[in-house]
Amino acid sequence: MNLLIAEDEKDIRNLLKLQLEQEGHSVFAAKDGIEALEIMEGKTIDLAVLDVMMPRLDGFNLLRKIRQTSNIPVIFLTARGEDMDKILGLGIGADDYLVKPFSMAELLARVGAQLRRNHEYSSQNPQTFSKVQCGSLCLDKDACCVYKNAALIELNAKEYMLLKYLMENAERVFTKKQLYKAVWNEDIYYDDNTVMVHISHIRNKIETDPKNPEYIKTIRGIGYKFHKQSEIRL
Questions:
Q1: Is 48 helix (H, G, I), strand (E, B) or coil?
Q2: Which fold has domain 131-233?
Q3: Domain spans in the chain, listed from the N-terminal domain onward
Q4: What is the pLDDT of residues 120-138, one digit of tens each?
Q5: Under 8 Å between Cβ of 113 and 87
Q6: What distance, in Å, lies between the first and last C-alpha atoms of the chain?
Q7: Three-class DSSP labels, 100-113
Q8: Beta-bridge partners for 165
């Protein structure tokens, strides 16, 4: 796999490159966000590990630019551990967030997990039913797209997988931990903020009134469920 590291601290950048190459990956290292974008213009990247605080172009703005053209897994690796920074990072499309100082073993495990999930998402097997229609929403499994009133809804990979899981299990109530395990395929590093941010992001895209959702309902003290309204499988 081709991995991108964007990290302005040379020692950390070199250590990450060495460790990930020992795992069998091809690693391209950048000292700032501008250099990272230049690498992505010439290389096919499968996953990116981004620092937040970098010169010229910081990690948040780098991710925004990446998300204009790519849904590759992105892991933030940063000294900024405040909840608002995590929520911002996840809200603009990050898939994971690791705070310095970090365990190299944990980072390698998270990289491996993200690559496996992305591969499974990209090569998912055809389903018995290719489309699920719930009210004005239509989820097309073959195309991995969601439409509302025939208009395409722009979702990143995790948002699509989370909405797909909820729609396929309509009216079933899930805890945040159950959703995290189902979509992120792990519970060791469970963080309920991740699920909450993704649910909020999906609601902003599919609900007429995100504060009074008709599709993704909050079950107070438990978690969430998808209200199927009139469901049609095609």
A1: strand
A2: Arc Repressor Mutant, subunit A (1.10.10)
A3: 2-122, 131-233
A4: 666 554 444 577 888 788 8
A5: no
A6: 36
A7: CCCCHHHHHHHHHH
A8: none
pTM over 0.70: no
The residues facing 196 across adjacent strands are none
Residue labelled with tokens 């903020």: 193
Where does 2-122 sit in CATH, by number?
3.40.50.2300
Strands 47-50 and 145-148 turn out to be: unpaired
Strand ranges, E, within 130-229: 131-134, 137-140, 145-148, 151-153, 174-175, 216-219, 223-226
> What percent helix, strand, coil does the chain show, rounded to 5?
40, 20, 40
Q: How remote is the C-alpha of 154 from its chain's centroid?
A: 13
d(CA 170, CA 209): 20
Rg of the Cα atoms in the chain: 18
pLDDT digits (tens, 9 = 90+) for 160-169: 999 999 998 8
Which residue shows structure tokens 């007429």? 208
